[in-house]
Structure prediction request, 235 residues.
Amino acid sequence: MQYKRVLLKLSGEALMGDRHYGIDPNRLKEYAKEIKEVTEKGIELAIVIGGGNIFRGVSGASNGMDRVQGDHMGMLATCINGLALQSALEDEGIYTRLQTAIQIKEIAEPYIKRKAIRHLEKGRVVIFGAGTGNPYFTTDTAAVLRAIEINADAILKGTRVDGIYNVDPEKDENAIKFETITFKDVISKGLKVMDMTAFTLSEENKLPIIVFDMNTSGNLLKLVSGKQIGTIVNH
Prediction:
């Protein structure tokens, strides 16, 4: 199936490249080129990005920090990543808008569903920052929520592995990859695709999730063009 409008979910860690923290400019540039190829095909693309390369609310809370404070810091981290990705995309000549769930009007638009959809219809890439704007909710949940709101055809979860396996393929060379899998099987097998809130929301709204290797050049374009890449989670 060729997609018309998709939401790409990237982890903050994906931006680190080979670094231990922060943002790798070379990785940003690679992603910007991949995204440009997709937009040139006329496919509408929105992006939700995590903040784990800068700060994680959960790890902050485990070290004694107030969880709400920690999550707000994490939201700001996603905005930093969003600005970095926006800059890289604009360097490639892609019109981009950053919308945030918390108001930072000097540097980004507030999230407004109709405005986001209008940007997409005009061929702009829309980056959604600050998660859902609420503590205790992950950027996975934000990705599913935004995808439902903008009527995306699918969520593309870009990772460093090429799909979903029965066990961790980085730890077990005999791991078996699933080409397709149902939502129910993911739950029954205890596979960690997204956090349970995000996953349940996706299942209830019949929104497929495709897990794929974002770091292999050309994968994103092949995927949105209808080729079988990664693992698709569906009903």
Remarks:
- The chain has a mean pLDDT of 93.
